[in-house]
Amino acid sequence: MDIERRDFLRLTAGALTWSLAAEPAWAQTNKTEVHWLGQATTKITSLTGKVIVIDPFLTNNPKTPVGFKNLDALGKVDVMVQPAGPQITITQTRAEHTSEITSVDPATKKSTTYPAGEPTGFIIEMENGFKLYHMGDTGLFGDMRLIGDYYKPDLIMIPIGGHFVMDPKDAAYATKEMLKPKFAIPIHYGTFPVLKGTPQEYQAALGQTTTQVFPLSPGDKLQF
């Protein structure tokens, strides 16, 4: 946890950041680009080139693509509360997960654990109304049904690894019975041995569904 928070604090004082350093592709495609970088780390480029980074666990994440071990690869990052102006709306949601920071004193080698605030997810509505629900690190909880009914996300980024978060069966239930999105990207699996859930198990648990699942490898990008 302290490793993840170190990257987090280097990039932002909050859980969500943005950058005006856009990748060239958006200008031609006029679509939302989702770039998964392993675990829950996600870089989103909006239609107008705003770059939103969620959960930047990069330097010591074993699944981070090599080029992104250097945090400079994310480009210029600023911190704001409403980072992308009135055209993009960001809504913070609850999540069910522990939230603590463990730090090690370099002199004594003693580790201490501190509370780190509430775990959260984010619903991001893009300029064209496309809604992405990044669920963060979370177990199954009943308000996912409310989130599905009220916000109607088009795309969910859903943890499936188990142990710390939902396993494939939990995630399939949340997807099919509660959130009902058009698209789903499984995340938070395979980073460490305890995160055993796989996209194949998730898809098998889903069975017949209208949700299109995209099993990505860290570093893959999609446009919607």
Task: Describe the protein in words.
By secondary structure, the protein is of the alpha+beta class. The protein has a single domain (2-217), classed as Ribonuclease Z/Hydroxyacylglutathione hydrolase-like (Metallo-beta-lactamase, Chain A, 4-Layer Sandwich), CATH 3.60.15.10. The chain is built from 5 helices and 13 strands. The strands form 3 sheets. A 6-stranded mixed beta sheet has the order 5-8-9-10-11-12, covered by helices on one side. A 5-stranded antiparallel beta sheet has the order 1-4-3-2-13, with no helix packed on it. The chain has a two-stranded antiparallel sheet with strand order 6-7. Helix 5 (199-206) links the parallel strand 11 (183-187) and strand 12 (212-213). Helix 3 (143-151) packs across helix 4. The longest helix has 12 residues, at 168-179.
Tell me briefly what this model is.
A hairpin with a 5-residue loop joins β3 and β4 (51-54).
Instruction: Report the strand count.
Output: 13
Instruction: Determine the CATH topology.
Output: Metallo-beta-lactamase, Chain A
Separation of the first and last Cα atoms:
32 Å
Given as residue ranges, the uncertain stretches (5+ residues, pLDDT < 50) are 8-27
Give the class-level CATH name: Alpha Beta
Mean pLDDT: 85
Quick one: overall form?
globular
| Residues in helix, % | 10-25%
List the helices and strands and how they pair.
Elements: H1 2-11, E1 16-19, H2 25-29, E2 33-36, E3 42-45, E4 51-54, E5 89-94, E6 100-104, E7 111-115, E8 120-125, E9 131-134, H3 143-151, E10 155-159, H4 168-179, E11 183-187, H5 199-206, E12 212-213, E13 221-223
Helix pairs in contact: 3-4, 4-5
